[in-house]
Task: structure prediction
Amino acid sequence: MNFTDIIKAFVTGITHSVVSRVGAIMASVIFPVLLTATMLDMQGIIHNPYFGFVLYMVLGPLFILSLVLIFAGLFFFKGKEGVGYFTYEYLKEQFSAPERFIRVRKLIVICTALSVINIAIIVLISYEGYHFMESEDFCGGICHTAMAPEHTAYLNSPHSSVRCVECHIGPGAQWFIKSKISGARQLVAVALGNFSRPIATPIHGLRPARETCEECHRPELFHGEKLYIKDKYLPDEQNTNVQTVLLMKVGSGGYRGSKANGIHWHVAPENKITYKHQDKGRLEISEVTLAKPNGTMVDFKAPGADEAEEAKETGHQERIMDCLDCHNRPTHIYLSPNEALDLKLNHGDIPLELPYIKKQGLAVISKDYKSSEEAKNNIATELRAWYLQNYPDVVKNNMELLDKAIAGVQAAYAENVFPEMNINWNTYTNFLGHKNDSGCFRCHDESHETSSGETISQDCDKCHIILAEDEPAPEVLKTLRGSNN
Ligand code: HEC
Ligand code: HEC
Ligand code: HEC
Ligand code: HEC
Ligand code: HEC
Result:
């Protein structure tokens, strides 16, 4: 047997077995496509979530299947001699006689070479496929309608360059596998269109925040107080800019002798806070327990907590307080109508020169719309009609001003409201602060009491010092900037 004979035997083996033949045809069709597509993807030439999906979730597995078919065919197919080509008997016969072994050496070389190439390709596909499954494209792009709200809010957040998996899965194989199992179920739900709208929160089975957030953030190293300046606009003719200035007691979880203090005192290792809540949304807190470093337990109970405990109402659950009890919206931040417009006005996406735009914008985005399309059209027609009637001179001479304002108001709506997912203003609660939702005041309400009458403080200076509230040009900022303007 010489080299060509071996190739012939190999090819004959394949052609004689139906299974191998199917595998070989599949492999030769898929291989060039797969290789080219993987190269294009690695170079970042094609950037489309469906491209990655077809490549890694469909073509990749099919290619591996085709290789399996080829070898399965060769293994089970019996040639003229009634011996399978790659069976144990066949190989034993070839290996036992030295002169035969010299001949099969070439066969081994071919097989090894082919295997090395195949393994290299499979490793490449798996590596790229793994990264694809970890990408924001896969999480946010494939499940278009289902993830549109989270994806949109994420893109406008401070975490827009942190990949979804960093918070939702985190490091380690255990959570990766867990997520793929629940991911498969979710993929089916998306394909069948029977996922819940909106997706209910709080999410259960989310990895404990301290294992994910603390990969990047170290609350024990935070310190001191931080100045927060919030720009707002009044609903008057000039859309007057006012500012709220807070000195936020961000504090620290305590580190190397510095004591835990301020807001991040809750997450210091020595303070363990658990709480019981009666509702799914964790808004109705009946009891808060603080385990102090010296081992004493302090129990703050809401009025009626004991009766609720006895009744063991459905949904009653206990939870250890962590980052998410305040930062439940670190990246999927949905704003209120007021905040959404203030942000657009502040960025100049809505021109401040247009009289009453804050007021008119607010009126038109606060309405209920059945679809994003309807909202978009209605915002445009209503604003156009109102300005042509009330400020014809302003807009007729400067149509771009109105067009820009309309686009800005439409964006303020589209970035926060998703009628297709039944997400309206304030569908999702935000625990940080106490403005639109009870937030910190779920516990800090002076009505959770210990048996000796201590309460969880609502003292306005406990968490922040209010330096200015809704003031045009606050004095404190002038002082800080050392100027009079
Ligand atoms: C900075 C961390 C972080 C990143 C990055 C992140 N998420 Fe989330 N996400 C969360 C947290 C925390 C919650 C839980 C909210 C709750 O339980 O109340 C959440 C909730 C969700 C929900 C449930 C619905 C909702 O709005 O609360 C979906 C869906 C979701 N995330 C998808 C995504 C997708 C898709 C991406 C990437 C485009 C992503 N997440 C990126 C932290 C993150
Ligand atoms: C992979 C790293 C990473 C992870 C994981 C992560 N973050 Fe962040 N986070 C960042 C970065 C980077 C910034 C700073 C963004 C900036 O300053 O523009 C940030 C900013 C923040 C801020 C400040 C936001 C602001 O308005 O300035 C908060 C609060 C925060 N993260 C909370 C969280 C919470 C809670 C989690 C866990 C659910 C989390 N982060 C997980 C990287 C991460
Ligand atoms: C008791 C509520 C609470 C808890 C618990 C909490 N935070 Fe915060 N955190 C805040 C508040 C309030 C602020 C300041 C206001 C803001 O960022 O809008 C803040 C600020 C931050 C910032 C920005 C700090 C800066 O200096 O800009 C980061 C990052 C952060 N928190 C991460 C975390 C992480 C990670 C955890 C969990 C280990 C955590 N926080 C637990 C309430 C909390
Ligand atoms: C699950 C209940 C709970 C929630 C929610 C909660 N806290 Fe607390 N907090 C406590 C308890 C209990 C104490 C200790 C009693 C006290 O000091 O009044 C405390 C104490 C504090 C302290 C004083 C820490 C110190 O130095 O002694 C600050 C500041 C604080 N909380 C800020 C906040 C902020 C800001 C939020 C919302 C973003 C918040 N808390 C949400 C339970 C809670
Ligand atoms: C347990 C902590 C805590 C207590 C007590 C507290 N606040 Fe706050 N407050 C916050 C946090 C946190 C924010 C910032 C939320 C954010 O970043 O949006 C805030 C924001 C504010 C703002 C700015 C809101 C805005 O964006 O316009 C005002 C005004 C305010 N608080 C007033 C008060 C007053 C008045 C009291 C006393 C009755 C009080 N707060 C008590 C935690 C607290």
